[in-house]
Amino acid sequence: MRIFTNQSHSGLQWLLVMFLIFGAGTQVLAQNEAVITGTVVDEKGDALPGVTLLVKGSTQGVVSDGDGKYTVNVPGNKGVLVVSYVGFLTQEVAVNGSATIRITLTGDAKALNEVVVIGYGLQKRETVTGSIATVKAEDFNAGLIADPLTLISGKVAGLTVTRPNGSDPNAGAQFSLRGATTVYGYNGPLIVIDGVPGGDLQTIAPSDIASVDVLKDGSAAAIYGSRATGGVIIITTKKGKAGAPTVTYSGNVSFDQVAKKYDMLTGEQYRKLGTDNGLTVDDRGANTDWFKEVTRTPVSQVHNVSVSGGNEKTNYYASVNYRDFKGMDKVTDRESVNGTVRLNTKALNDKLDFALNLTNTFDNRTFANYGAIAQSLNMLPVYPVRNTDGTYFENPDTPYQLQWNPVANMANNTNGAKESRLLGTVSAAYRILPALKASVNYSIIKNSYLNSSFSSNQDFFQQQNSLNGQASRSQTTNTNNIFEGLLTYNKQFGQHNLDVLGGYSYQNIFEEGLGAGNNNFITNSFLYYNLGAGRALNELTPGFNRSGVFVNSYAWERTLLAGFARVLYNFDEKYLLNLSIRREGASVLGVENKWGNFPSVSAGWVLSKENFLADNGIITNLKLRGGYGVTGNQESLGPYQSLSTLGAFAGQSGYFDGQWLIPYGSTYNANPLLRWETKNEVNVGLDFALFKNGWLNGSLDFYNRRINNLIGNYTAQLPSQINPNIFANAGTMENQGFELALNAQVANRDKFSWNVSFTGAYNKNKIKSVTSDQFKGTAFNITDVGVGFTQRIAAGQPIGVFYGRKFAGFNDDGKWLFYNQAGDAVTAEDAGDSYFYLGSGIPKYNLGLTNNFRFGAFDATILFRGAFGFKALNAKRIFHENYSNFTTHNLFQSAINKGVKNDQMYFSDYYLEKGDYLKLDNLTIGYSLPVKANGFIKSLRFYATGTNLLTLTKYSGTDPELPLNVDLSGEQEFTTGPGVEANYSYYPFTRTYTFGITGSF
C-alpha cells in the first residue's frame, strides 16, 4: 500500500474532521431505560424483517431481525415508537409501560408501487410511460469492481457493458445503449449523478451507489435534450436514514490469473520451424517466455467504511473508500481514495429542505507502455532477457527496430497520472403551498489531471535516436458549474392526478491546460521533476534532435442554456400521459443553429384495471405504453469547431534561413450551419405481471430510432476553403430492435428461495445516408490495423462494417487467391479493387441470465452473459501467422499448420471469425452469520466471487469481448473498431477470485 503525496493528504483532512464530528455522538449512556421486545408482522401475520423502529424524538432505534423480532431500549416506561417499512404505512406505537408489543403494519397501496428516478423527479413505476430500467444495490454484480457500470452488466436489456481493454485497472468500460448513436465522438449515455448531469463515473465509489436507473427511450430521455441521444443513466447514491448511527464496513481481496493467453512458439519450436522451412534463425541460445517475463499474479484490495443515521429532521451519510488495483503486468497500478459526505435536513415546520452532497476522489495511477505488453508477443523466444554481463539484451539490427526488449522498456520508462475529482452540490427546496414547491440547485464538478512520463537514457529508443533521456508533464483542470431552478406542482383532484414541472438550467464548462517536454538530460535522477534540466529545450543548433520537445498551453469554454417543462397526468392511475419539452442552446454550434427544441409525448393504459380483465386469475398487471421523443448530441463537438480559427503548427516548425520558425495557419474552417445530431425515436412497450402475486413479471419493448445530421470531420472543397477539413453534418443512421426483461420468483419458502432474471435485446443498425444538402459525402474506409483498411462507413450497411477481399484459397506456390467481382479465384495482384462487405463487428443479440438462490443463511448468485450475431477480427493473426514476419515477430503455434508461407500480409475474410460468446460472468456464494437482534453486530456476511470464469466461443483470440463503437474524432486511420482486436495493443483478460466481508454495527 503506497502513501499518497501531499496533494492527497490535503484533500482528505476534511474527511477526518467530519468523521470525528459524527463519531463523537455515537456513544451515549442509557439511563432509566425500559427494554421493549416484540415482533413486527404484516396483516396476514407474517414476520417482517428489516423494519425500522425509532424512539420518537431521538436517534435511538433498531431494525427487526429475520424473524421480525426486535429489542429496543426506551427511556423511562413511556415513549413512542415510530415504526416504518417500505411498502407499509408508518405507525406510531405508544409504549405505556408494556414490556412486549406485537406490532401489525398495514400495507400502503401507494408505497407498494416501486418508485423510479426519472429526469428531475420521481415517479411510481405503475404510472411510468417510457422505457426505464432500475437496478437496486442488492442486485448489483459482486467482485472486483473497477468501473461502476460493471455493477449492472447483464442486468439491463439493451445496455451493453464491455471491457475491451481486458483487466487493465486504468481503462474504463465501454457501454452502449440500443446501439451506436454517432460515428464521431462519444457514443454512450448521459451520466447523471444525484441529479447532476454530466458527472464522471470515476468520481463515485461503487459501494456508495444505491440504485441505477436507465432511461432508454426518447420520450423518457428528452427532458435532458441535447446530450441524451445515447440515453440517460441516473446514479442515485446512498443517504442517511432516521435511526441510531450505523457503521458499515465492506472489504475484499482479489487475485487475478490470465483467462486465456496466446500460444506462442517456444525457442525450440521457433528453431525447428525456421530449419524446416529454410528461414533465417538469429539464434541467441535462449528459450524465453516473454509474456511470463512481463506479467505477474496481481493481488488487489478494496475497503469501505461508512457511517449513517439521523432523526426525523436531519440525516447524514459519510464514507471513506480505499481501492488498490494491481494490473496484470508488473508495472500497472491504480490506487484510489474516495470520501463522501451527504447531509439532509428540514426547517421552517418542514417546509424547507436543505441538502449538501460532497464527494472527492484521488487517483494515483502508474502504467506500462501498452505496446510493451503487445511486444511480449512479438519478441523472438531465442532472445534472452539479459546479456551475460547483466545488461538488457536489445537487437537494433532488426528491420524497423521491431525487436525491442519489453522487460527493459518497462524498467527504463516511468508513466503515471495523478487525478482528483470533486463533485459538490448544494440544494434547497421550499414548499410554498401544499401542492407547490420551488427548488434551486448549484453543483460544481472539478477534475484535475497531472500526467507524467519519463524515458531514461538507457531506453532502447532513446539510444537509437540519440535523445539521451526524455521527459514530459501535462496538467489539465476542468471546471463545470451547473445551476438549475425548478418549480413543481403536484395535485390530486378526485381521480385526476397532475404533476407539473418547469425548470431552467445553466451549465458552463471551462478547461485549461499546459504541458512541456524535453530531452537530453545529464542524469536519470530527475525523472520528470526537472524538465528544464534537459538540453534540447534551449538548444537552437540546426539539426539537433528536438523529438518530444515542446511547451504549450490552452484554454476553452462551452456553455449550455435550457428551459424545460413537463406534465404528468393520469386518471385513476389507469390512463396515463407524459408531455415534455426542452429548449436548449449550445455555444459549440454554428451561429445559425445554436438553439433547438426537444419535445416528447408518451401515454399508457393499465389494462389490468379494466373490468374485462378483473379477477381473471392470470394477469395481475398489464400496461400498454407508447412514446415518441426527440433528443440531441452535441458532445461530439469541441468548442470553436464551428468557427474559423488560426493556430500554430509546432510539428512543422524548423530552421529557415538560420532562424527557428513556427508556422501558423487555419485549424478549422467556419461552418455557421453546424448543428447537433438529432435522434427521433418511437417506442412501444408492454409491462406485465402474471399469476398469483405476480411471480412472473417483465417488460417487452420495440423501438425505432433515426439519428439525423451525423457529425463528421470531412474533406473540404479547396480552394474555396482554407483548411483541408471541415466539421459538417452529413448522414443518417437508424437503429431498430426489441428488448425483453423477465423476472420469475420460482420458489419462496422460509428456508429456500430462487429468483431468475433474464434480459435479452436485439438491435439492427444501418447507415441510411452519408450525405446532406451541405456536404455530398461518399462511403469512406476506417480502421487500419497495419495492412490497410478493414472497415467502412457506407450507406445501406451497418456502422463499421468489415470491408475487404474474399478468400479463395492458396495456389500451388502458396500465394493468396481472392475472388474478383466476377467470382473467379485470382492472385492479389489480379484481384485489384475487388472488395466486398463482409459483415458487422457489432453484436445483434445480447443476453443476461441471473439466478439468485437463498438456502438458510447461505446465498448464491450466478450470472451468464452473452453476445451473438457478429464477426470478430483477430488482427494479431495477420502478423503472427505469416512466415514473412519470422525475423520480426514470434509466431503463433497455429502457424505451424496453417501459417501463410510464401506471400505478404493482406486483410480478407480469411481472418474474420464468428464472435459469438456465452460467459459464466459472475458466481458468488455468501454466508450471513446469525447475529443477536440487539447485539453490537447488526449484520455480518462473508462471500466469495469468481468473475469471467468460463467463456464458450469459437473465437481464436484471448476474449471475444471486443470494442463496440466507431469513433472518428481522431484520425480515420485508427487501429481499433467494433469487433476488432488490434495488433499493436494488448492487455490480457483475467479470471478474478474475490474474497470479501460486509458488516454493519
UniProtKB/TrEMBL annotation:
Keywords: Cell outer membrane, Membrane, Receptor, Signal, TonB box, Transmembrane, Transmembrane beta strand, Transport. Its main location: membrane. GO terms for biological process: siderophore transmembrane transport. It is a multi-pass membrane protein. Residues 416-853 form the TonB-dependent receptor-like beta-barrel domain. It is found in: Cell outer membrane. Residues 126-232 form the TonB-dependent receptor plug domain. GO terms for cellular component: cell outer membrane. GO terms for molecular function: siderophore uptake transmembrane transporter activity. It holds the Pfam family CarbopepD_reg_2. PROSITE patterns: TONB_DEPENDENT_REC_3 (PS52016). SUPFAM superfamilies: Carboxypeptidase regulatory domain-like, Porins. Belongs to the TonB-dependent receptor family. This is SusC/RagA family TonB-linked outer membrane protein. It comes from Adhaeribacter arboris.
